[in-house]
Write a structure and sequence with these properties.
The chain is of the alpha/beta class. It is built from eight helices and 15 strands. Helix content is 25%, strand content 26%. The strands form three sheets. Strands 3, 4, 5, 6, 7, 14 and 15 form a seven-stranded mixed sheet that branches. A six-stranded parallel sheet has the order 10-9-8-11-12-13, with helices on both faces. It is globular, with a radius of gyration of 20 Å. Pfam families: ADH_N (PF08240), ADH_zinc_N_2 (PF13602).
């Protein structure tokens, strides 16, 4: 089968190669998916360049990138009853690390990936059935970022009546987080640039938009001391110290970042906060099912920024586009 992989870390243009490898066979508890669409995330270029070894993650080489996929079950391994050949499915092939649910290779924090290929072996416990009302493109686009946003709001305790600041409302995670928080009945403020303001207003529909090129969000009197939670969905520089020192969150409020590790991993280490930590998603078909339902019911909009062909040039262009930081939606690869 055709795939794209790298055998050393470095700039994508230097290390990613087209390869021809045998079609893999499913083992116990797994299925083989014929991939229709895969999507790229910021973690893809970070792993490609460094392996994220400094963060304690493990990436076995050679490595086939991309974690999100949507496609059709092509073969079923033993001990699988939830899926059969012909089922349309989607999910995230993410390795959780030791003692985490739904882990693969769980002795260490392995990044499993493998979606930049014609076929992928997926643990059945990571997949969801794709509703007919949701396209393969949208299903692949929402899997990782949607799960991240949904779980972050759960951890933060966002519910009806909550007041939340989401940093990075134009990003793939941020725009979904704003919509999900609004769906829960929360009041939501978000940050973005003037360039993306109209997009965020029309798609995510927050209650308040802060143009970070005009105003400092940590100095906004309208939100000081009134927030129940802050979600850094973009890796804002010094975000946690600014939230803490700006006294944006009420006593006992929460803070979570998916990109800025300055807050640390100990959620109980910061006085005045019920929870404050860096967070990484966990595979959850239950969350994927809920996201698909919201999309099918037209309660969640997933924006596709650009679709790239399944060629070496297309894959490399996708990496360049993703790393530019200019996307306001998901970049996807049309595999077949």
């Amino acid at each position: 089968m055709k795939a794209f992989s790298y055998s050393e870390f470095g700039a994508p243009v230097d290390v990613i190669k087209a390869v021809d490898v045998a079609v893999p066979e499913p083992g116990p508890g797994t299925v083989r998916v014929k991939i229709v669409t895969a999507s790229i995330n910021p973690v893809d270029f970070m792993v490609c360049r460094t392996g994220l070894t400094a963060a304690g993650w493990n990436t076995a080489l050679p490595f086939v990138p991309f974690y999100d996929l949507s496609g059709t079950v092509d073969a079923v391994g033993t001990d699988v009853s939830a899926f059969q050949v012909g089922d349309e499915v989607f999910g995230v092939n993410w390795g959780q690390g030791k003692d985490q649910p739904f882990a693969v290779h769980d002795d260490e924090f392995n990044l499993v990936g493998g979606a930049c290929a014609e076929y992928a072996i997926m643990p059945a416990c990571k997949l969801s059935l794709k509703p007919a009302a949701v396209s393969h493109d949208v299903a692949a686009a929402v899997a990782l970022v949607g799960t991240t946003a949904y779980q972050a709001l759960d951890v933060l305790g966002v519910k009806s009546g909550s007041r939340v600041l989401i940093l990075g409302g134009a990003g793939a995670v941020g725009q979904i987080a704003v919509q999900l928080a609004k769906e829960r009945g929360a009041w939501v403020a978000t940050t973005c640039s003037g360039r993306t303001r109209d997009f965020v207003s029309s798609v995510a529909k927050p209650d308040m938009i802060i143009d970070y090129n005009v105003s400092k969000w940590d100095e906004m009197e309208e939100i000081k001391g009134s927030l129940d939670a802050v979600f850094d969905a973009v890796g804002e520089k010094d975000a946690f110290p600014r939230v803490r020192d700006g006294k944006l969150v009420r006593e006992g409020g929460s803070y979570l970042s998916i990109a800025g590790r300055d807050v640390g991993y100990d959620a109980k280490a910061h006085p005045g906060f019920t929870y404050a930590a860096w967070y990484c998603l966990k595979n959850s078909p239950k969350v994927q099912d809920e996201l698909a339902k919201l999309i099918a019911d037209k309660k969640l909009v997933v924006t596709i920024e650009e679709t790239f062909p399944f060629t070496l040039e297309g894959v490399l262009r996708a990496f360049v586009k993703q790393e530019s930081g200019k996307s306001v939606g998901k970049n996807i690869i049309s595999v077949c």
